[in-house]
């Protein structure tokens, strides 16, 4: 009886995990296609006829350095289903992050993916904030070349270059399309703007400050 209960518990856990992330593929591949006349609809994308699939559907040429000459001093180059159609249903994606000295990948979240980051060059100060339930604890670490750090799904996190030279990191994400919400851009640069009264009360500041911040240009580094 104990064995049966244990097996049921494992099945329940497996079901929970399956519905929490991208759906598991039931075939070798399901290359995305935007032509709705010749595909099968799967979680936001249509599938290309498998007989027409080629190696090019799984390829991205030369993931080179991003341009960090911007107000943040960083550039995120994502490789998601939008860049490689063969990622459809595979539940994984990638990003390259380039940093100028003191460059910042600002606080943001990935609503559909956990991120694992590895530093290729330079020194990064990284961190994430836990949920309200955990009293919004801040977890931080200084990473050097070869170090790895994980950002749990949906939590606000950031990376900053604290070295004297350029820095490069690669991130793997547990979704074909993890999404990104940059906190400052979303709150202060939304279209149309969020009411200054709402934001002033939320941040406990004067509405004039909110008005000023909403007029600023909020750069998107991805």
Descriptive notes:
This protein has 222 residues and is of the alpha+beta class. Helices cover 19% and strands 29% of the residues. It has helices at residues 2-20, 183-188, 196-203, 207-215; strands at residues 32-33, 40-42, 45-47, 74-79, 93-99, 104-109, 115-121, 124-129, 138-143, 148-151, 156-161, 167-173, 181-182. The strands form 3 sheets. A 5-stranded antiparallel beta sheet has the order 4-5-12-7-10, with no helix packed on it. A hairpin with an 8-residue loop joins strand 8 (124-129) and strand 9 (138-143). Helix 3 (196-203) crosses helix 4. The chain is globular. The N and C termini lie far apart (53 Å). May play a role in plant defense. Probably has no oxalate oxidase activity even if the active site is conserved. It comes from Crotalaria pallida. This is Germin-like protein. Mn(2+) binds at residues 108, 110, 115, 157.
Uncertain segments are 2-20
Give the H and E element order.
HEEEEEEEEEEEEEHHH
**Nearest-angstrom radius of gyration?**
21 Å
Output the number of helix runs: 4
Terminal CA distance reads: 53 Å
Shape: globular
* Average pLDDT for all residues: 88
Q: Strand pairing plus helix content: what structural class? A: alpha+beta
Percentage of residues in strands:
25-35%
Q: Work out the helicity level.
A: 10-25%
Strand order of the largest sheet: 4-5-12-7-10
Number of strands: 13
Main pleated-sheet profile: 5 strands, antiparallel
Binding site for Mn(2+): 108, 110, 115, 157
GO molecular function: manganese ion binding
Disulfide bonds: 30-47
Protein name: Germin-like protein
């Amino acid at each position: 009886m104990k064995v049966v209960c244990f097996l049921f518990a494992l099945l329940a856990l497996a079901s929970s995990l399956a519905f929490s992330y991208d759906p598991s593929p039931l075939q070798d591949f399901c290359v995305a296609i935007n032509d709705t006349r010749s595909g099968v609809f799967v979680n936001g994308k249509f599938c290309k006829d498998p007989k027409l699939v080629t190696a090019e559907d799984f390829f991205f040429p030369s993931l080179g350095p991003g341009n960090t000459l911007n107000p943040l001093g960083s550039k995120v180059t994502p490789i998601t289903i939008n860049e490689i159609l063969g990622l459809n249903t595979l539940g994984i994606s990638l990003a390259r992050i380039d940093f100028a000295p003191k460059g910042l990948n600002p606080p943001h979240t990935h609503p559909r993916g956990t991120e694992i980051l590895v530093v290729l060059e330079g020194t990064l100060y990284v961190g994430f904030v836990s949920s309200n339930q955990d009293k919004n604890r801040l977890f931080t670490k200084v990473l050097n070349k070869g170090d790895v750090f994980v950002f749990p799904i949906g939590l606000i996190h950031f990376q900053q270059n604290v070295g004297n030279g350029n820095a490069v990191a690669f991130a793997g994400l547990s979704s074909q399309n993890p999404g990104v919400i940059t906190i400052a851009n979303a709150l202060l640069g939304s279209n149309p703007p969020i009411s200054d009264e709402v934001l002033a009360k939320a941040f406990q500041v004067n509405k004039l400050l909110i008005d000023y911040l909403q007029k600023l240009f909020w750069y998107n580094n991805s």
